């Protein structure tokens, strides 16, 4: 298989929720000497974007989303050790606290962004899913984060991103952290509306955004 076929197969494996296909094509990507991050960003991530859009539009439901997550985890069993090796080869650039907001139980998109950030020299503190505004802020203070990255997959949980920024303002802490937002339904217009410092449509865009923000300090 060539690179394009492997990437297409990885995306298809996620959409179909096929653990075996994801696992085998992850191995094939390494055998073809592909960058494991390329397999994540151009293969697995595209599949997750597609299934996330279908979930948001009501074309698929939670079982399909869970199957996609299972396929992603199967592929990452192969790719993650190689990604971890890359993390050891770069200088540290800053600390990013990343989490999914209150009411949202989805983690795959967040995990992809966190993985890529880690390989680019950032200390990533992943606080998981379903995080309230005060919990997010307290943990950001505890780890002295430079950036708070807020993820959500559902339109119904987007207001929780706004709540974090409003709570920071109420606590006079807004200038202590950069805040970026992302997730399936999130747009640059939404980021501007709620006063976020930026929006990452993909993991690679999120990394570039974080780099720019920290460089501007």
Series of H and E elements: HHHHEHEHEHEHEH
The number of helical runs is: 9
Derived structural class: alpha/beta
CATH superfamily of the largest domain: Cobalamin-binding domain
Biggest sheet record: 5 strands, parallel
**CATH class of the largest domain, please?**
Alpha Beta
Q: Which radius of gyration do the C-alpha atoms yield?
A: 17 Å
Q: Can you tell me the CATH topology of the largest domain? A: Rossmann fold
**Which percent range describes the beta-strand content?**
5-15%
Beta strands, count? 5
Question: What is the topology, as strand order, of the major beta sheet?
Answer: 2-1-3-4-5
Written overview of the protein:
The protein is 59% helix and 11% strand. The protein has 217 residues and is α/β, with parallel strands linked by helices. It folds into 2 domains: 1-84, Methionine synthase domain (Methyltransferase, Methionine Synthase (B12-binding Domains), Chain A, domain 1, Orthogonal Bundle), CATH 1.10.1240; 92-214, Cobalamin-binding domain (Rossmann fold, 3-Layer(aba) Sandwich), CATH 3.40.50. Helix 8 (188-194) links the parallel strand 4 (178-182) and strand 5 (198-199). Helix 1 (3-16) packs parallel to helix 3, helix 2 runs parallel beside helix 4 (62-87) and helix 3 (36-56) runs antiparallel to helix 5 (108-119).
Q: What's the short story on this structure?
A:
By secondary structure, the chain is an alpha/beta fold.
Notable characteristics:
globular, five-stranded parallel sheet, 5 strands, 9 helices, 217 residues, alpha/beta, Methyltransferase, Methionine Synthase (B12-binding Domains), Chain A, domain 1, 2 domains, 11% strand, Rossmann fold
């Amino acid at each position: 298989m060539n690179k394009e076929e492997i990437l297409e197969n990885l995306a298809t494996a996620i959409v179909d929720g096929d653990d075996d296909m994801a696992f085998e094509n992850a191995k094939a990507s390494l055998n073809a000497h592909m960058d494991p991050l390329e397999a994540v960003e151009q293969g697995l991530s595209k599949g997750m974007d597609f299934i996330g859009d279908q979930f948001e539009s009501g074309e698929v439901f939670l079982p399909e989303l869970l199957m996609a997550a299972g396929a992603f985890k199967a592929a990452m069993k192969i790719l993650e050790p190689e990604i971890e090796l890359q993390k050891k080869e770069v200088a540290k650039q800053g600390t990013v606290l990343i989490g999914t907001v209150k009411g949202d139980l989805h983690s795959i998109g967040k995990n992809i962004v966190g993985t890529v950030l880690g390989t680019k020299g950032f200390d990533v503190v992943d606080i998981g899913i379903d995080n309230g505004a005060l919990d997010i802020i307290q943990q950001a203070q505890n780890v002295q984060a430079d950036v708070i990255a807020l993820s959500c997959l559902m339109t119904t949980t987007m207001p929780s991103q706004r709540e974090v920024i409003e709570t920071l303002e109420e606590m006079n802490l807004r200038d202590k952290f950069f805040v970026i937002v992302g997730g399936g339904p999130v747009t640059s217009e939404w980021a501007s509306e709620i006063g976020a410092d930026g929006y990452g449509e993909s993991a690679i865009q999120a990394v570039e955004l974080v780099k720019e923000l920290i460089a501007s300090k």
